[in-house]
Structures are given as C-alpha cells and as structure tokens.
Design goal:
single chain; signal; Lipoprotein; about 130 residues; disordered N terminus; about 20% helix; five-stranded antiparallel beta sheet; Hemocyanin, Chain: A, domain 2
Length: about 130
C-alpha cells in the first residue's frame, strides 16, 4: 500500500511540475513527496536538455540562489540535443525548505568568461521529478 501511495505522489508531483512550468522551463515550482514513515526521500530531478552551445552548462538553483546541481554536456555535436541528466537535490536544500514541500528552481546557462543567463524552453526541454525512498 505504501508503494502505491508513493507512486501516486510521484505522478501528482510530476503533473504539478508540468503545470507550473507551462511554456518555459527556466523557472519551475515542484511539489515534493513526503517521506514514507521511518524513511527519507532522495529527490532526483531528471533534466532533459535540447541543443546548447559548446562549453555551456545548465545550472539549477533555488529562487534564493542555492546551487542544486549542474549538467555539463561534453562531446555533443552542434545542433544536437544534449541528453538527459539526473541531478540529486542536496539535503541542505531540502532542509532549507523549513517544512515546506515545494521547491522553486531556475535553470541558467553558464559558460566560462560569459555572464550567466536564464535558459529557454529550447535548451531545457523537460524537468521531471524522480524521487525514490531510501
């Protein structure tokens, strides 16, 4: 029964993510699942990238600027999608939510020697919540 409830929460969280990020993935609010009784939840974000420039990275941060993680594609041919990356949400970020169950994040494009800029929907194609109980 717990397994079914956890699966339902994951699906609901993914649907809420899609609704919050309609049109552009550079900013999203994600509803997080509750930990099962006696367990912890490790929250993983599955980030699907489109074509990005050589040497560029996609950096995920909370609204207040805390680093969540970075996808650093290498060896991707020009004009091709950069692939899908799993980025774990650090425990310190989850702890800073102060009991809240919603993670607000932004995606940035960074490159050495250039100013960071917000990613657009052609660069960050999808972000899916992929939590798992430990």
């Amino acid at each position: 029964m717990r397994h079914a409830v956890a699966i339902a929460r994951v699906i609901a969280g993914a649907l809420m993510l899609a609704a919050c990020a309609h049109g552009a993935w550079h900013e999203a609010g994600i509803a997080l699942p509750r930990a099962p009784a006696g367990g912890r939840v490790q929250v993983l974000l599955e980030v699907e990238l489109g074509a990005i420039g050589s040497g560029q990275e996609v950096v995920l941060r909370t609204q207040d600027g805390q680093l969540i993680g970075t996808a650093s594609p290498h060896g991707i041919r020009s004009g091709r999608a950069a692939g899908t990356y799993l980025i774990p949400v650090p425990a310190r970020v989850l702890a800073s939510l102060q009991g809240g169950r919603r993670l607000h994040l932004r995606a940035w494009i960074e490159r050495a020697g250039a100013e960071p800029r917000e990613a657009d929907e052609d660069e960050v194609l999808d972000i899916r919540l992929a939590p798992r109980a430990e």
